């Protein structure tokens, strides 16, 4: 998968408390029904201000590029939902931009829901990009205090069927959180609870941080984002070599920081 994406547009503790609490996985589509009370959908002009793809013709080429990546991932996974880690080769290569829009592309499919999880604890950006004030905290706050319930940190985004878990309060030694049993249990619960739910982890750049490699152990697929004209072939090759080849879905060449 080699896509060049433009930027012309700008255990029960982990069960969602707004969802049924039975032990069996919920039926496909139930999570979609639960999202019908989300805030009003963003207008196309608001999506463009937030540098989000939408269905209108003004961003068709960008939308089609992300749909192409979606198709590639679904083909690789078969009938199962999955967790995708998206990481940039280096800072300012557009990793968060790609993660956000890939999650939106999955949410375009009315049979699917997306959950975007901001795992870039050094430079958390997703809540700012989406205009969300995480008043009840985020991922790290929940990992430290799971009794509060995962639903308390899942925020509607204005994109139908797409929710965000922000990074939460900044901490040192973030890798310790990502390598914990609790982190793995949270992601497994979020993925397995609904067959129509697809998770997207916005990870830190590969260069200068071990967190990307730690998070890759929790994901089914890894998408590497290279800054077009920014990252050299050698840097891209080095970044990709950090991951299990069986998990690497491909490299996205991105023109937007």
Description:
With 257 residues, the protein is α/β, with parallel strands linked by helices. It has a single domain, classed as P-loop containing nucleotide triphosphate hydrolases (Rossmann fold). It has helices at residues 30-34, 44-49, 60-77, 95-108, 126-129, 139-144, 174-178, 181-193, 211-216, 233-240; strands spanning 2-5, 83-88, 113-118, 155-156, 162-165, 197-202, 221-227, 248-254. Strands 1-8-7-2-6-3-5-4 form an eight-stranded mixed sheet, with helices on both faces. Strand 4 (155-156) and strand 5 (162-165) form a beta hairpin. Helix 3 crosses helix 4 (95-108). The protein starts with a strand and ends with a strand.
Strand order of the largest sheet: 1-8-7-2-6-3-5-4
**Average pLDDT, all residues:** 85
Give me the Rg, rounded: 17 Å
Number of helices: 10
Helix content: 25-40%
Question: How many domain regions?
Answer: 1
How many β-strands, per DSSP? Answer: 8
**End-to-end separation:** 20 Å
Low-confidence stretches: 2-25
User: Architecture, CATH level 2?
Assistant: 3-Layer(aba) Sandwich
Structural category is alpha/beta
CATH T-level topology: Rossmann fold
* Overall morphology: globular
CATH class: Alpha Beta
H/E element order: EHHHEHEHHEEHHEHEHE
The named CATH superfamily: P-loop containing nucleotide triphosphate hydrolases
Largest sheet: 8 strands, mixed
The share of residues in extended strands comes to 15-25%
């Amino acid at each position: 998968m080699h896509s060049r994406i433009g930027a012309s547009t700008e255990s029960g503790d982990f069960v969602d408390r707004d969802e049924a609490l039975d032990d069996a996985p919920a039926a496909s589509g139930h999570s979609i029904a639960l999202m019908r009370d989300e805030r009003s959908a963003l207008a196309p002009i608001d999506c463009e201000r937030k540098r989000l793809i939408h269905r209108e013709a003004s961003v068709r080429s960008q939308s089609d590029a992300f749909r192409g990546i979606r198709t590639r991932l679904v083909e690789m996974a078969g009938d199962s939902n999955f967790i995708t880690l998206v990481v940039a080769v280096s800072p300012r290569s557009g990793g968060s931009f790609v993660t956000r829009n890939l999650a939106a592309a999955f949410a375009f499919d009315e049979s699917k829901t997306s959950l975007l999880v901001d795992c870039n604890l050094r430079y958390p950006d997703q809540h700012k990009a989406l205009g969300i004030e995480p008043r009840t905290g985020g991922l790290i706050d929940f990992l430290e205090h799971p009794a509060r319930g995962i639903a308390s940190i899942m925020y509607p985004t204005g994109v139908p069927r797409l929710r965000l878990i922000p990074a939460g309060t900044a901490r040192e030694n973030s890798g310790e959180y990502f390598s914990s049993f609790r982190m793995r249990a949270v992601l497994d619960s979020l993925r397995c609870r609904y067959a129509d739910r697809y998770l997207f982890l916005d990870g830190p750049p590969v260069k200068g941080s071990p967190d990307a490699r730690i998070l890759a152990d929790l994901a089914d697929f890894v998408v590497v984002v290279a800054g077009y004209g920014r990252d050299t072939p050698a840097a891209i090759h080095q970044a990709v070599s950090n991951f299990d080849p069986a998990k690497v879905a491909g490299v996205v060449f991105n023109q937007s920081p």
